[in-house]
Amino acid sequence: MSGVVTKISGSWTTVLRDDGQFFLCKVKGSFRIKGLRTTNPVAVGDNVDITVSPDGETALITNVHPRRNYIIRKASNLSKQSHILATNIDRVLLLVTLRNPETSTTFIDRFIATAEAYRIPVVICFNKTDILSPDEMEELQHLRSLYESLGYETRAVSALNPSSLSLGPLDGLTLLSGNSGVGKTTLLNALIPGLGQKTAEISEAHLTGMHTTTFSEMFFLPAGENVADGAAHRMNALIDTPGIKGFGTFDMEPEEVGHYFREIFSVGRECRFSNCLHVHEPNCQVCKAVKEGRIALSRYESYLSMLGDKDEGKYRGT
Ligand SMILES: Nc1nc2c(ncn2[C@@H]2O[C@H](COP(=O)(O)OP(=O)(O)OP(=O)(O)O)[C@@H](O)[C@H]2O)c(=O)[nH]1
Ligand SMILES: [Mg+2]
Ligand SMILES: [Zn+2]
Fold first, then answer.
1. What is the CATH number of domain 254-315?
2. 146-169 burial, b for 16+ CB within 10 Å, e for fewer?
3. With 50 as the cut, is the pLDDT of residue 313 above it?
4. Domain covering 2-64, topology
């Protein structure tokens, strides 16, 4: 029978079988997915086949169905291995905060460029609006209009105040992501009354998160809520994930990076050279647009930082 992976913790994988029963599973020894060097052969969101053990409680995962999509991050900066955060997702809710902790625009841009490469829609959700000063609120408005002008959906919420949560329809599978301490688990708890997953205050000294959530896990939204177009029979779920620091680039050629920055892609088509990297080439329309303020400097700097990753790779001989 088949089911969906809801949690991976140590060597045990939790699978919700199609008939609604949960099983603790091991992955069949030799089984690995070809062509993908990852630290985890199975990820939250995977549809799998399982064979139940004679004890009737545990099971063996014997097959992973083809993935509709997946989102990965590098296991570490120097590693060629990657870690699959989740698979078969309908959207990412990227939680960001202007303060406590401060999410950098570089992080936002790298994240949304990577999601663009995987064709996964991102909703940028600004959290902790309750602690922002008037100046910070202005900065928030500025960032929202920047990203909305690029065609991204944005929200501004306070997860501590559940009545402020107008997130729009969350049908299907939504991945919650963002730096540690931005309030992913707090938001999850607000959306699923009674859940009570662990959250923690951010560090007073560094104003950064404490990496409270340590593995990805899928939680089901209450039936009938947040369901668009009456698809009540479908399971709607959120995946809470550990906070991430950086976001690396994968298998991207330098010429490709610009494809995932929407405005750079569209302006870049007017450049003199079709393989223009928009750094210092003559007649580069992107450089011109940055100078004239038609492309935000923060976006261009994020683009350059992603190009820079590739240079580092070259110098390391990878
Ligand atoms: N003021 C304020 N604090 C919030 C809000 N949302 C979350 N917090 C607080 O921020 C801290 C971190 O929240 P968590 O939900 O643990 O953050 P997380 O993103 O799950 O962090 P990791 O699991 O470490 O990745 C907690 O003390 C929350 O109470 C908010 O909207 N406003
Ligand atoms: Mg958490
Ligand atoms: Zn150019």
1. 1.10.40.50
2. bbeeeebbbbbbbbeeeeeeeeee
3. no
4. OB fold (Dihydrolipoamide Acetyltransferase, E2P) (2.40.50)
